[in-house]
UniProtKB/TrEMBL annotation:
InterPro entries xrefs: Cyt_c_oxidase_su4_prok, Cyt_o_ubiqinol_oxidase_su4, Cytochrome_c_oxidase_bac_sub4
Signal peptide: none
Keywords: Cell membrane, Electron transport, Membrane, Oxidoreductase, Transmembrane, Transmembrane helix, Transport
Family affiliation: Belongs to the cytochrome c oxidase bacterial subunit 4 family.
Organism: Paenibacillus glycinis
Keyword Transmembrane helix among record annotations: yes
Full protein name: Cytochrome o ubiquinol oxidase subunit IV
Localisation: Cell membrane
Domain of life: Bacteria
Length: 108
């Protein structure tokens, strides 16, 4: 007999979000996108405050994407998605820091 399991799916059924969760995530994403755009275009804050608003809303947007659309909170143990995410963020941080370090020390 042939196996009917798709690649990447185990014997357990994965739970996906409800329509309500997707609508909430979408609404939060829209708000977290429009607010910084309006803050920059209308000069609501000074330069430093605008920069902080952009950083905070970007971090919140990242969290919304992880929790509502990538289902990170619904993962059972072992948390492979979370470990993969942390490894990816570590690699990005090393590449960015290394690039800045090389550009700074290349001037001499």
């Amino acid at each position: 007999m042939a196996q009917h399991n798709a690649i990447g799916h185990g014997d357990h059924a994965e739970r996906h979000g409800s329509l309500r969760e997707y609508v909430i995530g979408f609404a939060l994403s829209i708000i977290l996108t429009i607010f910084p755009i309006l803050a920059v275009m209308n000069h609501w804050f000074g330069n430093t405050a605008t920069f902080l608003v952009l950083l905070i809303t970007a971090a919140l947007q990242f969290a919304v994407q992880l929790l509502f659309f990538m289902h990170l909170r619904e993962e059972e143990r072992p948390r492979y998605k979370l470990m993969t995410l942390i490894l990816g963020l570590l690699i990005v941080a090393v590449v960015v820091y290394g690039s800045i370090w090389i550009m700074e020390h290349n001037m001499y």
